Structure formats: C-alpha cells, structure tokens
Amino acid sequence: MALGFSSPLVTVFALLYYIVSLPLMRRNAIYMYRPQYDGGGFRWPFLFDIFVSSMVLGQGLLFLQFLLKQALGPAIAAILPLAPTLVFRHRCRMRFLKGFEDGGLLQMSLKDGWDNSIPTSVEAREEYRQFLVDAHKAAYVPISIAGDTVNILTDEPAVIVPVEYDDE
User: Fold this and answer.
1) Band of pLDDT at residue 126, cut at 50, 70 and 90
2) How far apart, in whole angstroms, are the C-alpha atoms of residue 153 and residue 143?
C-alpha cells in the first residue's frame, strides 16, 4: 500500500485481497489460534511503528517521485504531512507506550496468591488488588454497560476475603 500512489492498480488489487481474506483471517484468529499466554498487548507498539513507518515511506517515496518529475508544488505538498505524522507517532508513544509495556492481566494475576503454600495476609492481597484496579481499569468495567442482562461476576466489584492460610 505504500507504493499505491505510483501504481493505482496495485492499490485496487491489494484492497480486493484484504476484502476477500478478512473473513478467513478473522476465523483463524478466533478458532485456530490459541495463545499460550496473554501478553497484554506487548506487540501493539511494534505494529504501530510498522504502520507509521509505512506512512513515512509512502510520503517520502511520493515526494521523491514528484521531485524526479520536477513537479516542485506537488512534491512540497507530498512532504508536508511528514511532520504531523512524526509528531503523532511521538505523542502516541508518550501517551500509550507505558500501558503496553506493563504486564498482562493474566501474568499479574499469577502473583496474587493462587499458590496457597506461600503465606500471605489480607493487607498484602488488598494492596495487590488496588494495584490491579489501578493498572487494569478496563478489566473492572462492569459488563452491564455493554447491555447484557445476565448477572456476571464482573458486575460486582472485586473484594478481598480472609482465607485460612492468611498470616494474621
């Protein structure tokens, strides 16, 4: 797609390919791929960089193509979006990168005391719950917002209850 401006035919066939293959990719993602663990979105920054670099490459190649054809006005118009694109990349990374670098909810939940051979306390588990709520607020959004009428466990807030292996 980065070279779609030079050969519009490539863009049309690439679009047709994605339209035809999208249902197959969706099916494979839902039914065929079973991840071994939840990474918490650690691949999204890499994918974002791929998308942005593709846009920058397209803008640069379009600028070069117009420059080689000695069309100075279109060349300048083609390179103008480069600065906003790079500013957008920088602002997105500053705002969202920390969240993607944090651990996933599943990895963090493995540290919450499931292994009852390790002594724990109500206070330690409450502190950990506070951390989870702060770090993963989206995981605690009630499902009732989505319009489901079934009472699902996440409709109630998370609480800490004493257990027999607590250190008191």
Assistant:
1) confident
2) 9
